[in-house]
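subagent[fold] <- orchestrator: predict structure for attached chain, return tokens only, no commentary.
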Amino acid sequence: MKKFKDTTVRWGVIGVGKVCELKSAPAMNTIPNSKLVAVMRRDAAKAEDYALRHEVSKWYSKAADLIHDPEVNAIYIATPPHVHLELTQLAAAAGKPVYVEKPMARTYAECLQMIKACEEASVPLFVAYYRRKLPHFLKIKELLDQGELGTLRTVHINLKQVLTPNLVSQTETNWRVIPEIAGGGYFYDLASHQLDLLDYFFGKITHAAGFSTNQAKAYAAEDLVTGSFVFENGVMGTGNWCFTTSSASEIDEIVIDGSKGQIRFPTFGEGAFTLLRPNQKPLHFHLELPRHIQRPLIQSIVEELLGKGTCPSTGITAARTNWVLEEIVKNRI
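subagent[fold] -> orchestrator:
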């Protein structure tokens, strides 16, 4: 990779929608040697409004104009997945590091093209799987690596959500349930976080299979998915995802089992988890989450670009998650 020559990462953000209000872009100005200098949105009025509200000096309505701004030396792509490939290629061709939202792309093939574009341009590629840097997940990984659960055996994902009337009325405008834009439905949007986090805990998944269906037919994407997977370290896992249950069935839980104990935690929401071991009281952990949830990951990107650290979420790791998503939904019923 080309050495990053500047002493400050000057961010340009493409697609300043909801995720950029609190979760991500505002954090860029809170990190040493990092500054948000330009934003872009196709709707010029909305781009200008964001820039004024967040005190950003420049705004654009065309992605290419932002990418080629000489003051911008790193690009954050915060758009829906259907344009991730095109915009990554443009940014890489301009010689600028890329940070892209998750899921990395609509397909594994698109992920590989993004990796190729960045490798050929000798620029790094990072993906917004920010849970790899959140404090409670770092603590879980520490406990796993220290052998607190003994030999790791299995992991089970259980995610069930209600299909709300409001969502049904917005299916034509909600890109997250339009496969042509998102790659899939809420499975791609939410399970990608879970599967990537498990990749961080256990290493890559080497085998994956499953079934998917559109049972409620409220939108085009899959709404019910089951899957099984095997990690390179021998851990075996299962997943059950349903986005059309009643409120009585709602759950967000991952369970990791080992020869000496178990860890349970939600993927979304508060920074909490529970460690259970035989003949001992459960240990409940609760670590405070950052105000800007992506800040720790963005800080690791800044540190890597400046030669002071390493970011744990790259195009290589994120592409593995897309591969698993595809393998699990491949058998559509």
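orchestrator: received. Logging for downstream: The chain has two domains: 9-129, 135-289. The chain has ten helices and 15 strands.
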